[in-house]
Amino acid sequence: MHILKRVSPLSGTITVPGDKSISHRSIMLSALAEGTSTITNFLTGEDCLSTIDAFRKMGISIQRDHSTVTVHGEGLYGLKESMEPINLGNSGTTARLILGILAGTPNHYCLYGDTSLSVRPMDRVTVPLSKMGARFDGNQEGRLLPLSVRGQELTPLDYTLPINSAQVKSAILLGGLFADGTTKVTEPVPTRDHTERMLKGYGVKVKKEHNTISLDGKQTLYAMDVEVPGDISSAAFFLCAAAMKEGSDIVVKDIGLNPTRTGVLDMLERMGASISIQVTRHIGDEPIGDVTVKGSNLSAISISGEDIPRLIDELPILALVASQAKGKTVITDAQELRYKETDRIQAVVDTLQQMGVEIEGTEDGMVIHGSTKPLQGGTYHSFKDHRIGMMIAVASLLTEDDIHLQEADAINISYPNFFEHMDSLLKG
Ligand code: S3P
């Protein structure tokens, strides 16, 4: 349990840990590649360590020295059967993407996760992958983990995403690597495109026409070195904190600024935040840069439609920002939030209501009434969800009394040195 009492504005410069989405994919694609890949600035959060453990269990030799990881790829068909069931911990990205890979790997695997992951829907990937010929079985007719997978010779699929999910898109594209022919995924609304961008880096020909991504199966992946950019979803907690805390002035350096991820910056701008974004370089196909934010008076906005996939993980912290913005912020089209590490609509609404915020949950979002009243301290639970835990920690900048955060450990999922960074920004 952490006891937090924060009064000063934030100032100073930080670099946040590596991007979670890119870190997962770097291990998976390096494992399927021919040759040795070195990954730097790898996120050492628990979710990404689950991905390393899973691939080690499947016979991939992986060495890690802090945030530098070396992966000895075994090629597309190089994964071995695991002697034990594979624990995916809390990680939805590991589960969904690995199912795509194992669908076409001619072995048998048993996969399981923690209590949160065990109730998250897996049919969103097992249904389309089964159409390609994969065989799954598991709880609730294969809808939930634990799942067993028996990889098959796959046929290609032409699939339109029924939900806006990069994990589903990625799982099908990864399955498509094993299929004989061209797999196509059409996404009505763009979602994060790291899989497509990174596959190209590993030598895979991926086409994008309008909103359809396609690739031919059986292509060889070649090892490459990956420098993981800072995670904008982690940076968001401090960028949002600075935007709403008067007198703050911070710089977060070397953040990934892939346009499919920068929705949070657009929303802060829309709310009237003082924010400047500088793209400094590219790592592979990913733009990287520095973001400066100063505290300002904010106004309410609407967040909906195509905004949502570009900031899905940032909605909890944006809801907190909205509690400080003048007027009524309305978030819609975000029903996917109910299927994250916890039901994030419920968790945010319950937490912010307890803090004294006027907020209502709706089926697909939230309505938040901004106010200048200080928030109420007290004992809060992370719901064992890293992003809810960090939202509560940031709320401590706005309370008059201490916040006692229970199950603060959940933050290690994506941001192991979160409190260290928070302390450094509070000291300036
Ligand atoms: C992710 C995609 C998103 C996001 C998750 C990471 C990814 O999930 O919420 O944290 O790396 O592909 P969905 O695809 O379920 O929206």
UniProtKB/TrEMBL annotation:
Record-listed 3-phosphoshikimate binding positions: K20, S21, R25, S165, Q167, D313, K340
Keyword Transferase: yes
Pathways involved: Metabolic intermediate biosynthesis; chorismate biosynthesis; chorismate from D-erythrose 4-phosphate and phosphoenolpyruvate: step 6/7
Subcellular location(s) of the protein: Cytoplasm
Family annotation (InterPro entries): Enolpyruvate_Tfrase_dom (IPR001986), Enolpyruvate_Tfrase_sf (IPR036968), EPSP_synthase (IPR006264), EPSP_synthase_CS (IPR023193), RNA3'P_cycl/enolpyr_Trfase_a/b (IPR013792)
Chain residues that bind phosphoenolpyruvate: K20, G92, R120, Q167, R344, R387
Active site per database record: D313
Reactions catalysed: 3-phosphoshikimate + phosphoenolpyruvate = 5-O-(1-carboxyvinyl)-3-phosphoshikimate + phosphate
Enzyme Commission number, as recorded: 2.5.1.19
Keyword Amino-acid biosynthesis listed: yes
Domain of life: Bacteria
Main subcellular localisation: cytoplasm
Coiled coil: none
Subunit and interaction comment: Monomer.
PANTHER family hit by this protein: AROM/DEHYDROQUINATE SYNTHASE, PENTAFUNCTIONAL AROM POLYPEPTIDE
Protein name: 3-phosphoshikimate 1-carboxyvinyltransferase
Protein's organism: Pontibacillus salicampi
